[in-house]
Amino acid sequence: MRWQSTSLKILATASILSGAVENVAAAFNWNNTKYVYAFGDSYSFVQGTRGYANFSFIGDMEHLAFTPAQLLSNQIIPKNVHPLKALTGYLAHAEYFECSVQLTDLSTPQLEFLTGCGTGLPSRCTKQLWDFAFAGADISGKLLPLHHVWTVPLVDQVSQWSRFAANVIPHPDDQTLATWWIGINDTGDTLSNTTITDFEAFWHQEMDAYFEAVQTATQRGLHTHLFLNVPPGDRAPASNSNPTKAATQKAHILQYNRILTERIGRFKKANPSTTVLTFDAHAWFSKVLGSPQQYGFTNVTGFCTCANPTGYFWYNSGHPTERVHLLLAEAIGEALSKAAH
User: Fold this and answer.
1) Is 45 within a domain?
2) If exposure means fewest CB atoms within 10 Å of the residue's CB, which of 141, 190, 198, 332 is most exposed?
3) Where are the alpha helices (DSSP H) in 271-321?
4) Which residues does UniProt assign to the signal peptide (predicted)?
């Protein structure tokens, strides 16, 4: 399996053979999808009243546990609203009271646009968004240092969901989609990491941890998966003014994406009853960055961390603006609709 040349297409690789019904993946229909589970980093996370401010929907690495009641009462709120202001009476830990973290990305993520679940209780949304992504996440803290002591890497996001949420929130096969978008921080954090001498081997280590987590999620009942690859971070303001840095980052991203594609194929082969979908985020970002005016952008090299970044692709040095997330959601939604089988 390989990524489609156009990003406006999703691959559905369910094992459906003419005349055969055994080991056939559950039919996917985006219109019928009611539950969306998300794992990843800042490109996917939503803010929750019980989340770490500007980092998560619920909990953090030092506070992974929650009760069913806490999960089901947790609300999605705008990123510029501190959880303490939204959750009256919540006895948060000291870091919440003394939080000095700056709100660096206030744009609405594509998942809120995609599902239409952007505020309030997820359970009241037509498409319920249960988001365990954590801003700043890498795949595993055993392979790359955590950005902060409270950062929840992907493998721990899945563990958190499996331990505290999987038995609480429904996930019927024909109504559930799990989204996976990780690697943006990994391919960036390795730029100055001198301990890695063989990146081919390192990315395979990352994929071992990644797909062990995906396998855990599958065994716990998530059988329809959407994988997004890493967009061209080398074209973000954090790198695009430094040709050497940009070239290295580009090489890391292309290598990571190639190996990710291989591992998705291996996962599908080992799990023929799952439905596997892919979206080429790298191609989509490249297309928009290559023809910005067609999409309403006038500046794709700088950024505007401001209330109204009209015309800008980048909100800050590494995150796109809300308009990018909106357009991306439209592209993913269109592709998901076409992927119905």
Assistant:
1) yes
2) 198
3) 281-290
4) 1-26
Q: Tell me the whole-structure pTM to 2 decimals.
A: 0.89
In percent, the amount of the chain with pLDDT more than 90 equals 81
Q: What share of the chain is helix, strand, coil (3-state, %, to 5)?
A: 40, 15, 45
Residue 313, C-beta contacts closer than 8 angstroms, at least 6 positions apart: 288, 289, 292, 297, 299, 300, 320, 321, 324
Query: Is 211 part of any domain?
Result: yes
Residue 6 lies in a domain: no
Q: Grade residue 58 by pLDDT with cuts at 50, 70 and 90.
A: very high
Dist. CA 191–CA 177, nearest whole Å: 33
Please identify which residue in the block is written with the tokens 């989204």: 179
Cα gap 129→149, rounded to integer Å? 26
CATH at 213: 3.40.50.1110
Which amino acid belongs to residue 65? A
Count of domains forming the chain = 1
What phi and psi values does residue 41 have, to the nearest 5 degrees? -125, -150
User: Higher pLDDT residue, 313 or 17?
Assistant: 313
Run of H or E including 215: helix 199-219
What's the gap between Cα 264 and its chain centre? 16
- Residue 81 forms part of a structural domain: no
